[in-house]
Amino acid sequence: MPTKIISPITRLNGFWRIDVNIENGQVVDAYSSGIFFRGIEKILHGRDPRDAVYLTQRICGICSTAHGLASSLALEDAFKIKPPRNGIIIRNLLFGADLLQNHIRHFYFLTVPDFVRGPDRPPFVPRYEVDYRLSRTESDKIYENYMESIHISRAVHDMVTIFGGKIPHNHGILAGGATVPPTADNVRMFMSLLQKVRSFVQNKMMADLEKIATAYEDYYKIGIGTGNLMAFGMFPHPDKKDDFYFKPGIIIGKKREKLDAMAITEHIKYSWYRASPPLHPEEGETQPDTGKEDAYSWVKAPRYKGHPVEGGPLARLILSGDYKGGHSAMDRIAARVMEANIVSEMMEEWCRQLEIGKPVFTPYDMPANAEGIGMVEAMRGGLGHWMRMRAGRITHYQIITPSAWNCSPRDDEGRRGPVEEALIGTPIEDFDQPIEVGRVARSFDPCLACAVHMIDMKGREKYVEIL
Predict the structure, then answer these.
(1) DSSP string covering 358-414, please?
(2) SS3 271
(3) What domains are defined for the chain?
(4) pLDDT digits over 341-399, tens only?
(5) Does the pTM of the predicted model rise above 0.70?
(6) What span, in angstroms and rounded, lies between the C-alpha atoms of 239 and 228?
(7) Could you say which of 129, 224, 412, 465 is the most buried, measured as most Cβ atoms within 10 Å of its Cβ?
(8) Separation CA 270–CA 15 (nearest Å)
């Protein structure tokens, strides 16, 4: 059976390999491989727990705010503290801005070149030369917006710096709330930039999505995946305890359930880690084993009650009742653009809710021994941080990222991960130019930087021979 190996897959965050078996012009099997090792959990051992907020942001420059938020929530759970109202709103604004830059970048830089032929110059060539359906006039207009999106993405990053100091790896989020209080000036600056970004999303990004979705309507039937969806809850309500603007929940086999964090396990039969039964992340370990038989990925295989589940904008919008479509590649792309529009509107209201002169941080005393969980929605889906400390130092830290859920290998029962399952049945027009594989895979907005990476104790790159 012919096998096509694509490695590394371009136009995504991190390093990723996909092997697809192709028969009679369609994918009949697929393997998703994270090809770098992530060692951040081991780096955190022995550190002051408060360092985790900043160190875990170094996992990824695209979604660093999400890691800072998840780590802060884990510490707040451990220390039994709650941020003040202003602190919650500012964190929502910081993460909202970071989410917008991700969605804008993903759509224009990573997705558009899969569907729209770009200019005949680098970095748009070399490229696959199959199945481009838009006219040259339509394509040129989208690439005008592509170039403008660079400036819009810069504006969104400027928004993060107003309350976060810098980007990536902002200093505005920490356990207890936020660091920068609202003033008339910084709120005005934030709102001014937001209006510019919102106009672009509404008037150009949404229109470009419609053009692509209309031309590639068949992609509403391609890349459907497992149909199992998950969301941890995104943007907490500042006035309602345990309430979120995007609701948490699980859909397994078309049945909706209440989220149960204890139902999460990590399988590692096909991952390069020392063999163990599926473990909850509170007990999980990160012990590399590069010679492990049958393993093919550094990404673990998270499962919910044993099921592979998909996260991301599509899951969030379906669970919150904001999207009524299906589970295809085009549905994922459409949901991401729609979410950017919805979030930008919410952010305008959050700015108006800030109270100048009110606190943004809750002081606290750190206990010697504690443990906590921080579960948030990152750009690509559910992100969880599990932390345990003894004598004032971290003794256990486990992270499950959205791309670990979406890009996972097979689990102990041999069930494919969501991306692997979504690729099954994908039609391939040209074996040597499998553009369709990239379209389906990138619809998940994969971030393998979050899933895998490694440094040694002196900060130098470490190369691991895979036998």
Answers:
(1) S--B------SSEEEEEEEEETTEEEEEEEEEETTEEEEEEEE-HHHHHT----TT-
(2) strand
(3) 3-451 (1.10.645.10)
(4) 999 999 999 999 999 999 999 999 999 999 999 999 999 999 999 999 999 999 999 99
(5) yes
(6) 31
(7) 224
(8) 18
